[in-house]
Amino acid sequence: MALTGTAIITSGDGPLGSSITLEFAKRQPRLHLLLVTRDPSSASVKQVCSRVRLLGAARSLETVPADLSKFSSILSFADATVARVRSGEIPPIAVLVNCAGTTTSYELDGRTVEGFDRVYQVNCLAPFLLTVSLLEGFRAGSSRSSTRSAGPRPRTATATAAAAVMAPGACVVNVGCSAMTPGNLEFFESDWEKGREVGTQLGGKEGLKRFGSSKLLMSVAMYALRRSFLAFGHIPLDICTVDPGHIQPSPDTDTDTQRGKPRLQITQRTRTGLSPVLRLFSKTAAVNEPRVPAKAIVEIACRHSNCDNESSSSGSGGGGGGGGGERGNRCYYLDNTERYYILDDEYEAGSVINVLRDGKIVDNVFQRVMRQVGMADGTKTTTPPPEMI
Hints:
Layout: E1 5-10, H1 15-27, E2 31-37, H2 43-53, E3 60-65, H3 71-87, E4 93-98, H4 118-133, H5 143-147, H6 157-163, E5 170-175, H7 204-232, E6 237-243, E7 246-247, H8 255-258, H9 276-280, E8 287-288, H10 291-305, E9 339-342, E10 345-348, H11 349-352, H12 359-372
Parallel strand pairs: 1-2, 1-4, 2-3, 4-5, 5-6, 6-9, 7-8
Antiparallel strand pairs: 9-10
Helix pairs in contact: 1-2, 1-10, 3-4, 4-7, 7-12
């Protein structure tokens, strides 16, 4: 199904981000592509723009600067983007791909302006803050009609679906990784730096745990955000995480290797809750070119943004994720199932991230992240998020 609206890709000029951009341009020519990058004048940005233009003049593409390691930059970008949507300058947001992140976790770097660990802020707090700040710019779906009707608002996905005419909403796809397996939800709350100086080299195990913890917290916080949308019953936005597997690094962008530091390999080492045989034959055991996960991410984004009559199967999955080749008019944002993808294989998120099954822990993470990005005072939020366009 043709997808309309705006697709925002953070780090849209990186190895994976540029491949995602090109895949969107090939498959969805009616989308307006908005690439978020630190330097729109860089050679990598010029290269991806040139490759998109070669596909045809009909493609709509722009690059916008934003530094995702600074809250002020994220908020400025989000405010400007929402204002542009409201004025009709660009169409409502159909897809947000949170692709930006840092893997330079093997050196102790300084804190950000906001006072957080840089890896944690870029990999977890930034995508969360960006998503929440863009809420009023996302495309509205069928559940909006239920919020304006007389009588009580439906509280369950089933009731909402029955009360509304199916219509496309929007989705957020977060790029995760299997390195979150050794992650710890309390890692960044502990005194893990232990008074060491900036520039101190970290051991492989500690660096991996630092990176994995940032990605684990990102996924838990974002799935918690999705739950809050379902609880309020009128936010037509789906959220999922995609593990891209082991991506072949680009020699031009592999900054860790150039510095002589060990590179964090984002590879599928293990998945909690999945059988050893499945791990052995995992699709992500191989080293893939960026175009391989890019195709999977774009397919997932298109499927989750549309209410369609196509098959919802995305592979055998083995995780009971609800694919199974079902057909019917389906809106993912009205569905209670939380989905986690390993390339194009679908799993129930709790089977991969076991902590998602503990509602109290998930809520604690959600409240903590909300406080850290300045969205809450630590108490449960009772006011529904703003209406979407």
